[in-house]
Amino acid sequence: MKKYNLLYLMALAMGLQTAHAQETIAPALPQEKPVYLTNATIHVGNGQVIENGTIAFTKGKITAVGNSVPAAGSDATVLDMKGQHVYPGIIAPESNLGLMEFESVRATVDVREVGEMNPSIRSLISYNTDSKVINTLRSNGILLAQVTPEGGIISGTSSVVQLDAWNWEDAAYKADNALHFYMPRLIPVNNDRDRSPATNDRMKIAMEQIEKVRTFFRQAKAYQQEATHAATNLKFESMRKLFTKEQKLFIHCDLVKEMLIAIDFAKEFNVDVTIVGGIDSWLIADLLKQNNIPVVLAQPHSLPVMQDDDIDQPYKTAAQLQKAGVLFCLSNDGFWQQRNLGFEAGTASTYGLSKEEALTAVTLNAAKILGIDKIAGSLETGKDANIAVSTGDILDMKSSVITRAFIQGREINLDNKQKQLYKKYEQKYGL
Protein backbone atom coordinates (compact mmCIF):
# COMPACT_ATOMS: atom_id res chain seq x y z
CA MET A 1 0.00 0.00 0.00
CA LYS A 2 2.84 2.41 0.83
CA LYS A 3 4.47 1.65 -2.51
CA TYR A 4 1.19 2.34 -4.30
CA ASN A 5 0.81 5.69 -2.54
CA LEU A 6 4.35 6.67 -3.46
CA LEU A 7 3.72 5.87 -7.12
CA TYR A 8 0.48 7.82 -6.98
CA LEU A 9 2.24 10.87 -5.56
CA MET A 10 4.97 10.63 -8.22
CA ALA A 11 2.35 10.44 -10.97
CA LEU A 12 0.50 13.39 -9.46
CA ALA A 13 3.68 15.45 -9.35
CA MET A 14 4.42 14.62 -12.98
CA GLY A 15 0.86 15.56 -13.88
CA LEU A 16 1.26 18.93 -12.18
CA GLN A 17 4.48 19.57 -14.07
CA THR A 18 2.72 18.66 -17.33
CA ALA A 19 -0.16 20.97 -16.49
CA HIS A 20 2.26 23.89 -16.26
CA ALA A 21 3.47 23.02 -19.76
CA GLN A 22 -0.01 23.33 -21.29
CA GLU A 23 -0.98 26.46 -23.20
CA THR A 24 -2.58 29.15 -21.07
CA ILE A 25 -4.93 30.84 -23.50
CA ALA A 26 -7.61 32.95 -21.86
CA PRO A 27 -10.74 34.17 -23.66
CA ALA A 28 -10.36 37.60 -25.21
CA LEU A 29 -11.78 40.68 -23.53
CA PRO A 30 -14.86 42.40 -25.03
CA GLN A 31 -14.16 44.76 -27.93
CA GLU A 32 -13.58 48.30 -26.66
CA LYS A 33 -12.51 50.30 -29.72
CA PRO A 34 -13.89 50.30 -33.26
CA VAL A 35 -11.76 48.17 -35.60
CA TYR A 36 -11.24 48.73 -39.33
CA LEU A 37 -9.70 46.08 -41.56
CA THR A 38 -8.62 47.91 -44.71
CA ASN A 39 -7.27 47.12 -48.19
CA ALA A 40 -8.45 43.52 -47.98
CA THR A 41 -10.08 41.09 -50.36
CA ILE A 42 -13.37 40.53 -48.54
CA HIS A 43 -15.29 37.31 -49.13
CA VAL A 44 -18.74 38.19 -47.79
CA GLY A 45 -19.97 34.59 -47.61
CA ASN A 46 -23.04 35.10 -49.79
CA GLY A 47 -21.12 34.78 -53.05
CA GLN A 48 -19.97 38.40 -53.16
CA VAL A 49 -16.27 39.34 -53.24
CA ILE A 50 -15.09 42.90 -52.54
CA GLU A 51 -11.62 43.77 -53.79
CA ASN A 52 -9.55 46.30 -51.85
CA GLY A 53 -12.39 46.70 -49.38
CA THR A 54 -12.83 47.71 -45.76
CA ILE A 55 -14.83 46.10 -42.99
CA ALA A 56 -15.57 47.96 -39.76
CA PHE A 57 -17.00 46.61 -36.53
CA THR A 58 -17.85 48.09 -33.15
CA LYS A 59 -18.94 46.42 -29.90
CA GLY A 60 -18.91 43.05 -31.63
CA LYS A 61 -21.16 44.03 -34.54
CA ILE A 62 -20.26 44.77 -38.16
CA THR A 63 -21.04 48.41 -38.92
CA ALA A 64 -19.84 48.77 -42.52
CA VAL A 65 -18.50 46.66 -45.40
CA GLY A 66 -17.45 47.79 -48.86
CA ASN A 67 -15.23 50.06 -50.91
CA SER A 68 -16.64 53.35 -49.63
CA VAL A 69 -16.64 52.88 -45.88
CA PRO A 70 -16.42 56.21 -43.99
CA ALA A 71 -12.99 57.02 -42.58
CA ALA A 72 -12.14 55.69 -39.16
CA GLY A 73 -12.31 57.99 -36.18
CA SER A 74 -9.34 58.87 -34.00
CA ASP A 75 -10.37 56.28 -31.42
CA ALA A 76 -10.45 53.38 -33.91
CA THR A 77 -7.86 50.67 -34.51
CA VAL A 78 -6.98 50.49 -38.20
CA LEU A 79 -5.30 47.34 -39.51
CA ASP A 80 -3.90 47.24 -43.04
CA MET A 81 -4.79 43.86 -44.58
CA LYS A 82 -3.18 44.50 -47.96
CA GLY A 83 -2.63 41.22 -49.79
CA GLN A 84 -4.76 39.27 -47.32
CA HIS A 85 -8.23 37.77 -47.49
CA VAL A 86 -11.05 38.37 -44.98
CA TYR A 87 -13.69 35.67 -44.48
CA PRO A 88 -16.65 34.99 -42.22
CA GLY A 89 -15.70 32.48 -39.56
CA ILE A 90 -16.28 28.88 -40.65
CA ILE A 91 -19.12 27.05 -38.85
CA ALA A 92 -18.73 23.38 -37.96
CA PRO A 93 -22.10 21.60 -37.67
CA GLU A 94 -22.54 18.13 -36.21
CA SER A 95 -19.51 17.98 -33.94
CA ASN A 96 -18.77 16.37 -30.60
CA LEU A 97 -16.16 19.03 -29.93
CA GLY A 98 -15.83 19.68 -26.21
CA LEU A 99 -17.69 16.46 -25.41
CA MET A 100 -14.71 14.22 -26.13
CA GLU A 101 -10.99 14.72 -25.57
CA PHE A 102 -9.39 11.29 -26.05
CA GLU A 103 -11.47 8.67 -27.83
CA SER A 104 -9.65 5.83 -26.07
CA VAL A 105 -10.03 7.28 -22.54
CA ARG A 106 -13.57 6.75 -21.24
CA ALA A 107 -13.27 9.43 -18.56
CA THR A 108 -12.89 12.11 -21.26
CA VAL A 109 -15.89 10.96 -23.31
CA ASP A 110 -19.17 12.66 -22.42
CA VAL A 111 -21.01 12.46 -25.71
CA ARG A 112 -23.75 9.91 -25.04
CA GLU A 113 -26.37 9.02 -22.44
CA VAL A 114 -27.81 5.62 -21.57
CA GLY A 115 -31.25 4.71 -22.91
CA GLU A 116 -32.94 5.03 -26.29
CA MET A 117 -35.28 8.01 -25.92
CA ASN A 118 -33.57 11.04 -24.37
CA PRO A 119 -35.11 14.22 -25.81
CA SER A 120 -34.46 16.06 -22.54
CA ILE A 121 -30.67 15.60 -22.68
CA ARG A 122 -28.78 18.85 -23.37
CA SER A 123 -25.29 18.55 -24.84
CA LEU A 124 -24.55 22.18 -24.01
CA ILE A 125 -24.14 21.66 -20.27
CA SER A 126 -21.44 19.05 -20.89
CA TYR A 127 -19.44 21.24 -23.27
CA ASN A 128 -15.86 21.61 -22.04
CA THR A 129 -14.47 25.03 -22.96
CA ASP A 130 -11.01 23.95 -21.75
CA SER A 131 -10.65 21.28 -24.42
CA LYS A 132 -7.22 21.47 -26.06
CA VAL A 133 -8.83 20.59 -29.40
CA ILE A 134 -10.82 23.83 -29.62
CA ASN A 135 -7.76 25.98 -30.25
CA THR A 136 -6.65 23.82 -33.19
CA LEU A 137 -9.96 24.55 -34.94
CA ARG A 138 -9.66 28.29 -34.38
CA SER A 139 -6.25 28.24 -36.02
CA ASN A 140 -7.97 27.16 -39.26
CA GLY A 141 -10.68 29.81 -39.11
CA ILE A 142 -13.43 27.71 -37.50
CA LEU A 143 -15.09 29.99 -34.96
CA LEU A 144 -18.52 28.41 -34.29
CA ALA A 145 -19.58 24.80 -33.81
CA GLN A 146 -22.75 22.80 -33.22
CA VAL A 147 -22.16 20.53 -30.22
CA THR A 148 -24.17 17.38 -30.85
CA PRO A 149 -25.04 14.43 -28.59
CA GLU A 150 -24.89 10.80 -29.68
CA GLY A 151 -26.19 7.46 -28.42
CA GLY A 152 -29.62 5.86 -28.44
CA ILE A 153 -32.24 6.73 -31.03
CA ILE A 154 -33.42 10.12 -29.74
CA SER A 155 -30.15 11.47 -28.35
CA GLY A 156 -31.10 14.92 -27.07
CA THR A 157 -30.54 18.49 -28.19
CA SER A 158 -27.53 20.16 -29.77
CA SER A 159 -26.43 23.75 -29.29
CA VAL A 160 -24.31 26.18 -31.27
CA VAL A 161 -21.29 27.52 -29.37
CA GLN A 162 -18.68 30.18 -30.07
CA LEU A 163 -15.14 28.91 -29.56
CA ASP A 164 -13.73 31.48 -27.13
CA ALA A 165 -15.38 31.18 -23.74
CA TRP A 166 -14.76 30.61 -20.04
CA ASN A 167 -17.63 28.17 -19.58
CA TRP A 168 -20.62 26.68 -21.39
CA GLU A 169 -22.85 29.58 -20.39
CA ASP A 170 -20.46 32.04 -22.06
CA ALA A 171 -20.04 29.75 -25.07
CA ALA A 172 -23.76 29.38 -25.81
CA TYR A 173 -24.55 31.03 -29.16
CA LYS A 174 -27.89 29.36 -29.82
CA ALA A 175 -28.96 26.93 -27.14
CA ASP A 176 -30.91 23.74 -27.90
CA ASN A 177 -31.33 24.54 -31.59
CA ALA A 178 -32.13 20.97 -32.69
CA LEU A 179 -33.34 17.58 -31.46
CA HIS A 180 -31.44 14.59 -32.88
CA PHE A 181 -32.95 11.35 -34.19
CA TYR A 182 -30.45 8.66 -35.21
CA MET A 183 -32.46 6.50 -37.58
CA PRO A 184 -31.61 2.77 -37.53
CA ARG A 185 -29.90 1.68 -40.75
CA LEU A 186 -32.23 0.04 -43.24
CA ILE A 187 -29.65 -2.35 -44.65
CA PRO A 188 -30.28 -6.10 -44.32
CA VAL A 189 -27.35 -7.91 -42.70
CA ASN A 190 -27.22 -11.69 -42.76
CA ASN A 191 -24.61 -13.71 -40.92
CA ASP A 192 -24.51 -17.41 -41.80
CA ARG A 193 -22.75 -18.20 -38.53
CA ASP A 194 -25.56 -16.67 -36.49
CA ARG A 195 -29.06 -17.91 -37.28
CA SER A 196 -30.78 -15.90 -34.55
CA PRO A 197 -33.74 -13.72 -35.62
CA ALA A 198 -31.92 -10.66 -34.25
CA THR A 199 -29.21 -11.16 -36.86
CA ASN A 200 -31.16 -12.47 -39.81
CA ASP A 201 -33.91 -9.87 -39.78
CA ARG A 202 -32.22 -6.55 -39.12
CA MET A 203 -34.58 -4.71 -41.47
CA LYS A 204 -37.60 -5.81 -39.46
CA ILE A 205 -35.98 -4.76 -36.19
CA ALA A 206 -34.99 -1.38 -37.66
CA MET A 207 -38.53 -0.74 -38.90
CA GLU A 208 -39.92 -1.64 -35.49
CA GLN A 209 -37.56 0.87 -33.86
CA ILE A 210 -38.61 3.56 -36.32
CA GLU A 211 -42.27 2.84 -35.60
CA LYS A 212 -41.48 3.07 -31.89
CA VAL A 213 -40.09 6.57 -32.47
CA ARG A 214 -43.15 7.49 -34.52
CA THR A 215 -45.42 6.38 -31.68
CA PHE A 216 -43.29 8.35 -29.21
CA PHE A 217 -43.70 11.50 -31.33
CA ARG A 218 -47.47 10.98 -31.61
CA GLN A 219 -47.75 10.69 -27.84
CA ALA A 220 -45.58 13.77 -27.33
CA LYS A 221 -47.69 15.81 -29.76
CA ALA A 222 -50.91 14.67 -28.08
CA TYR A 223 -49.39 15.66 -24.74
CA GLN A 224 -48.68 19.18 -26.05
CA GLN A 225 -52.31 19.55 -27.12
CA GLU A 226 -53.67 18.78 -23.64
CA ALA A 227 -54.80 21.80 -21.68
CA THR A 228 -53.81 20.20 -18.38
CA HIS A 229 -51.84 17.08 -17.51
CA ALA A 230 -52.62 14.50 -14.88
CA ALA A 231 -48.86 14.04 -14.51
CA THR A 232 -45.86 15.90 -15.92
CA ASN A 233 -43.83 14.00 -18.50
CA LEU A 234 -40.38 15.56 -18.67
CA LYS A 235 -39.49 13.92 -21.97
CA PHE A 236 -42.64 15.20 -23.65
CA GLU A 237 -42.22 18.62 -22.05
CA SER A 238 -38.72 18.89 -23.54
CA MET A 239 -40.18 18.49 -27.07
CA ARG A 240 -42.50 21.49 -26.84
CA LYS A 241 -40.24 23.77 -28.91
CA LEU A 242 -39.98 21.14 -31.63
CA PHE A 243 -43.73 21.24 -32.31
CA THR A 244 -43.82 25.06 -32.21
CA LYS A 245 -40.93 25.11 -34.74
CA GLU A 246 -38.64 26.97 -32.36
CA GLN A 247 -36.43 23.90 -32.63
CA LYS A 248 -35.50 21.67 -35.58
CA LEU A 249 -35.45 17.90 -35.93
CA PHE A 250 -32.12 16.66 -37.25
CA ILE A 251 -32.55 13.12 -38.61
CA HIS A 252 -29.31 11.22 -39.12
CA CYS A 253 -29.69 8.97 -42.16
CA ASP A 254 -27.97 8.22 -45.47
CA LEU A 255 -29.96 5.91 -47.74
CA VAL A 256 -32.89 6.88 -49.97
CA LYS A 257 -35.41 4.72 -48.10
CA GLU A 258 -34.29 6.30 -44.82
CA MET A 259 -34.60 9.84 -46.18
CA LEU A 260 -38.09 9.09 -47.48
CA ILE A 261 -39.08 8.19 -43.92
CA ALA A 262 -37.52 11.48 -42.75
CA ILE A 263 -39.71 13.37 -45.23
CA ASP A 264 -42.76 11.50 -43.89
CA PHE A 265 -41.84 12.63 -40.36
CA ALA A 266 -41.74 16.25 -41.53
CA LYS A 267 -45.20 15.91 -43.09
CA GLU A 268 -46.93 13.94 -40.33
CA PHE A 269 -45.70 15.99 -37.40
CA ASN A 270 -45.35 19.36 -39.15
CA VAL A 271 -41.80 19.89 -37.87
CA ASP A 272 -38.72 21.38 -39.52
CA VAL A 273 -36.58 18.42 -40.56
CA THR A 274 -32.94 18.49 -41.60
CA ILE A 275 -31.17 15.39 -42.91
CA VAL A 276 -27.73 14.75 -41.47
CA GLY A 277 -25.39 12.52 -43.45
CA GLY A 278 -27.36 12.34 -46.68
CA ILE A 279 -24.86 10.24 -48.62
CA ASP A 280 -27.52 9.30 -51.19
CA SER A 281 -29.21 12.72 -51.14
CA TRP A 282 -28.12 13.39 -54.73
CA LEU A 283 -30.49 10.62 -55.86
CA ILE A 284 -33.57 12.43 -54.53
CA ALA A 285 -32.38 16.04 -54.70
CA ASP A 286 -35.54 17.21 -56.49
CA LEU A 287 -37.74 15.62 -53.83
CA LEU A 288 -35.72 17.24 -51.04
CA LYS A 289 -36.05 20.61 -52.74
CA GLN A 290 -39.80 20.08 -53.22
CA ASN A 291 -40.23 19.37 -49.49
CA ASN A 292 -37.81 22.09 -48.37
CA ILE A 293 -35.55 19.60 -46.55
CA PRO A 294 -31.96 20.87 -45.98
CA VAL A 295 -28.99 18.50 -45.82
CA VAL A 296 -25.94 18.54 -43.56
CA LEU A 297 -23.63 16.63 -45.89
CA ALA A 298 -21.22 14.63 -43.76
CA GLN A 299 -17.70 13.48 -44.58
CA PRO A 300 -17.10 14.71 -48.14
CA HIS A 301 -13.67 13.01 -47.95
CA SER A 302 -14.91 9.43 -47.96
CA LEU A 303 -15.55 6.45 -50.19
CA PRO A 304 -18.98 5.86 -51.75
CA VAL A 305 -21.36 3.59 -49.84
CA MET A 306 -22.55 1.56 -52.81
CA GLN A 307 -20.08 -0.34 -54.96
CA ASP A 308 -21.84 0.82 -58.14
CA ASP A 309 -21.40 4.52 -57.31
CA ASP A 310 -18.64 6.58 -58.91
CA ILE A 311 -15.49 6.58 -56.81
CA ASP A 312 -15.66 10.39 -56.60
CA GLN A 313 -19.38 10.55 -55.79
CA PRO A 314 -18.86 11.98 -52.26
CA TYR A 315 -16.91 14.85 -53.84
CA LYS A 316 -19.62 15.58 -56.42
CA THR A 317 -22.69 15.39 -54.19
CA ALA A 318 -22.39 19.00 -52.97
CA ALA A 319 -22.47 20.39 -56.53
CA GLN A 320 -25.45 18.18 -57.41
CA LEU A 321 -27.40 19.50 -54.42
CA GLN A 322 -26.41 23.06 -55.33
CA LYS A 323 -27.66 22.56 -58.89
CA ALA A 324 -30.97 21.17 -57.63
CA GLY A 325 -31.45 24.15 -55.32
CA VAL A 326 -31.25 22.14 -52.09
CA LEU A 327 -30.01 24.07 -49.05
CA PHE A 328 -26.98 22.18 -47.76
CA CYS A 329 -23.84 22.64 -45.73
CA LEU A 330 -20.74 20.54 -45.15
CA SER A 331 -19.70 18.74 -42.00
CA ASN A 332 -16.86 16.51 -40.85
CA ASP A 333 -17.72 13.86 -38.26
CA GLY A 334 -15.92 14.00 -34.95
CA PHE A 335 -14.12 16.75 -33.09
CA TRP A 336 -10.45 17.18 -34.05
CA GLN A 337 -11.30 16.34 -37.67
CA GLN A 338 -13.38 19.51 -37.91
CA ARG A 339 -10.24 21.59 -38.40
CA ASN A 340 -10.13 20.28 -42.00
CA LEU A 341 -13.67 21.43 -42.79
CA GLY A 342 -12.55 24.38 -44.90
CA PHE A 343 -10.25 22.18 -46.94
CA GLU A 344 -13.07 19.72 -47.61
CA ALA A 345 -15.07 22.63 -48.96
CA GLY A 346 -12.06 23.33 -51.16
CA THR A 347 -12.31 19.81 -52.54
CA ALA A 348 -15.99 20.39 -53.34
CA SER A 349 -14.96 23.50 -55.27
CA THR A 350 -12.93 21.35 -57.65
CA TYR A 351 -15.88 19.01 -58.24
CA GLY A 352 -18.53 21.43 -59.48
CA LEU A 353 -18.91 24.21 -56.92
CA SER A 354 -17.39 27.63 -57.43
CA LYS A 355 -15.00 28.88 -54.74
CA GLU A 356 -17.59 31.24 -53.28
CA GLU A 357 -20.31 28.55 -53.34
CA ALA A 358 -17.96 26.25 -51.44
CA LEU A 359 -17.28 29.00 -48.90
CA THR A 360 -21.02 29.57 -48.48
CA ALA A 361 -21.43 25.84 -47.78
CA VAL A 362 -19.37 26.19 -44.58
CA THR A 363 -20.54 29.67 -43.57
CA LEU A 364 -23.90 31.18 -44.54
CA ASN A 365 -25.59 27.90 -45.51
CA ALA A 366 -24.53 26.36 -42.21
CA ALA A 367 -25.86 29.40 -40.37
CA LYS A 368 -29.23 29.09 -42.13
CA ILE A 369 -29.55 25.40 -41.29
CA LEU A 370 -28.57 26.01 -37.66
CA GLY A 371 -30.94 28.97 -37.33
CA ILE A 372 -28.29 31.64 -36.70
CA ASP A 373 -28.14 33.34 -40.12
CA LYS A 374 -29.58 36.61 -38.77
CA ILE A 375 -26.44 37.15 -36.68
CA ALA A 376 -23.74 34.98 -38.27
CA GLY A 377 -22.54 33.26 -41.43
CA SER A 378 -21.63 36.27 -43.58
CA LEU A 379 -19.89 39.64 -43.35
CA GLU A 380 -22.92 41.91 -43.52
CA THR A 381 -23.86 45.02 -41.59
CA GLY A 382 -25.58 44.25 -38.29
CA LYS A 383 -24.21 40.74 -37.92
CA ASP A 384 -21.69 39.56 -35.32
CA ALA A 385 -18.07 40.25 -36.24
CA ASN A 386 -16.99 36.61 -36.55
CA ILE A 387 -14.06 37.10 -38.89
CA ALA A 388 -11.03 35.13 -40.06
CA VAL A 389 -8.10 36.73 -41.89
CA SER A 390 -5.85 34.57 -44.08
CA THR A 391 -2.75 35.22 -46.14
CA GLY A 392 -4.15 32.85 -48.78
CA ASP A 393 -7.25 30.93 -49.76
CA ILE A 394 -8.92 29.66 -46.59
CA LEU A 395 -10.17 26.62 -48.53
CA ASP A 396 -6.66 25.66 -49.66
CA MET A 397 -4.50 23.69 -47.22
CA LYS A 398 -1.31 24.80 -48.98
CA SER A 399 -1.84 28.57 -48.99
CA SER A 400 -4.12 29.25 -46.01
CA VAL A 401 -2.44 30.76 -42.97
CA ILE A 402 -4.82 32.37 -40.50
CA THR A 403 -3.16 35.53 -39.16
CA ARG A 404 -6.04 37.04 -37.19
CA ALA A 405 -9.47 35.98 -36.01
CA PHE A 406 -12.30 37.78 -34.26
CA ILE A 407 -15.31 36.31 -32.45
CA GLN A 408 -18.04 38.86 -31.78
CA GLY A 409 -15.44 41.56 -32.34
CA ARG A 410 -12.94 40.15 -29.84
CA GLU A 411 -9.55 39.34 -31.35
CA ILE A 412 -8.74 35.84 -30.16
CA ASN A 413 -5.42 34.14 -29.48
CA LEU A 414 -4.56 31.74 -32.32
CA ASP A 415 -1.94 29.78 -30.38
CA ASN A 416 -2.50 26.11 -29.61
CA LYS A 417 -0.75 23.09 -28.15
CA GLN A 418 0.39 21.81 -31.53
CA LYS A 419 1.97 25.12 -32.47
CA GLN A 420 3.78 25.18 -29.15
CA LEU A 421 5.13 21.69 -29.65
CA TYR A 422 6.28 22.66 -33.15
CA LYS A 423 8.19 25.65 -31.78
CA LYS A 424 9.63 23.56 -28.95
CA TYR A 425 11.14 20.91 -31.18
CA GLU A 426 12.09 23.43 -33.84
CA GLN A 427 14.31 24.97 -31.17
CA LYS A 428 15.62 21.61 -29.96
CA TYR A 429 16.77 20.51 -33.40
CA GLY A 430 17.78 23.93 -34.63
CA LEU A 431 15.40 23.91 -37.58
UniProtKB/TrEMBL annotation:
- Family annotation (Pfam families): Amidohydro_1 (PF01979)
Supply the SUPFAM superfamilies for this chain: Composite domain of metallo-dependent hydrolases, Metallo-dependent hydrolases
What one GO molecular function would you report for this record? hydrolase activity, acting on carbon-nitrogen (but not peptide) bonds
Keyword annotations for this protein, in alphabetical order, are: Hydrolase, Signal
Q: Which InterPro entries match?
A: Amidohydro-rel, Metal-dep_hydrolase_composite, Metal_Hydrolase, Metallo-dep_Hydrolase
Tell me the superkingdom of the source: Bacteria
Stretches assigned to the Amidohydrolase-related domain: 156-410
- Give the signal peptide, or none: 1-21
Q: What is this protein called?
A: Imidazolonepropionase-like amidohydrolase
Which species is this record about?
Answer: Chitinophaga niastensis
